[in-house]
Design goal:
By secondary structure, the chain is α/β, with parallel strands linked by helices. The protein has a single domain, classed as Rossmann fold (3-Layer(aba) Sandwich), CATH 3.40.50.10420. The protein has helices at about 1-15, 20-35, 40, 60-65, 140-145, and strands at about 45, 70-75, 85-90, 95-100, 105, 115, 120-125, 130, 135, 160-165, 185, 190-195, 200-205. Strand 1 (about 45), helix 4 (about 60-65) and strand 2 form a beta-alpha-beta unit. It is globular, with a radius of gyration of 16 Å. The protein starts with a helix and ends with a strand. Bound molecules: the ligand Nc1nc2c(c(=O)[nH]1)N(C=O)[C@@H](CNc1ccc(C(=O)N[C@@H](CCC(=O)O)C(=O)O)cc1)CN2 and adenosine-5'-triphosphate. Adenosine-5'-triphosphate binds near residues 136, 137 and 148.
């Protein structure tokens, strides 16, 4: 546990150390490759996030999704003390306010909310990952709790895609029973995809 916490701090430190130039290149590569993926093209309702703490920036993809007429949603801390997320509709007119972690988010308006079950695709920020598709997040358990319903169903929706910089890959992460399995993980240079029994490198990005 102590190890997990120090690994989390080290990986966060690593991504924060990336220069603005590298961050911008990474965001562009990610957008170029993901915006061609059939799963992205098919998805009508997509959850993304606004980058924080050196996370790989999905906003070019957010703009591409809006341009293609997709409904886009951002995570909002659920009112109350439960460490769950709501997903609230976002477009270029949406006003944002910093949440208690300083991350900009839309107002928690129940009318603009979509149930997590009704999203087609979720782009999830990762702090760390390994080649088996195991993930580490910020440690709040927000995504794990919000998508815990996936343990009870064979339903493939929503498609869960983790995003990270390649420097956030580690040899092996321990898994916990509450961890939500991802369908794939994308970085600026590769996409790792889950098959029935193993993970493979899908292709190397140009
Ligand atoms: N961009 C982005 N948005 C997101 C998440 C995320 O990981 N990235 N989240 C994914 O869950 C949720 C917010 N979860 C977070 C959990 C911890 C911290 C954080 O900075 N923790 C500090 C302690 C801050 C404090 O306690 O005041 C830290 O650990 O240093 C930030 C966000 C919802 N929105
Ligand atoms: N489905 C759940 N129900 C109750 N508690 C949970 C659930 N999922 C995770 N937790 C709790 O959340 C805490 C954080 O879990 P963990 O360290 O795996 O976070 P994380 O996966 O890094 O964060 P996130 O999901 O926000 O990306 C743990 O203490 C765990 O007990």
């Amino acid at each position: 546990m102590e190890n997990r916490q120090s690994l989390r701090l080290e990986l966060r430190q690593r991504r924060r150390a990336l220069s603005p130039q590298l961050q911008q290149l990474a965001a562009e590569h990610l957008c170029k490759q993901l915006s061609r993926q059939p799963i992205f093209l098919r998805s009508k309702r997509i959850a993304l996030y606004l980058p924080n703490d050196g996370e790989i920036d999905p906003t070019p993809l957010l703009h591409e999704a809006l341009r293609r007429g997709k409904a886009c949603y951002l995570p909002v801390l659920k009112p109350g003390a439960e460490n769950r997320l709501w997903f609230v509709r976002f477009d270029e007119h949406t006003q944002l306010e910093p949440n208690r972690f300083g991350i900009p988010e839309p107002k928690a308006d129940p009318r603009k909310r979509i149930r997590a079950e009704d999203l087609d695709m979720v782009l999830m920020p990762l702090v760390g990952f390994d080649a088996n598709g195991n993930r580490m997040g910020m440690g709040g358990g927000f995504y794990d709790r919000t998508f815990a319903f996936k343990h009870q169903t064979q339903n493939h929706r929503p498609y869960l895609l983790g995003l990270a910089h390649s420097c956030q890959q580690v040899d092996k992460l321990d898994t916990e029973h509450w961890d939500i399995p991802l369908h794939s993980i994308a970085t600026e240079s590769q996409i790792l995809v889950a098959s029935r029994s193993h993970w493979h490198r899908d292709f190397i990005l140009g």
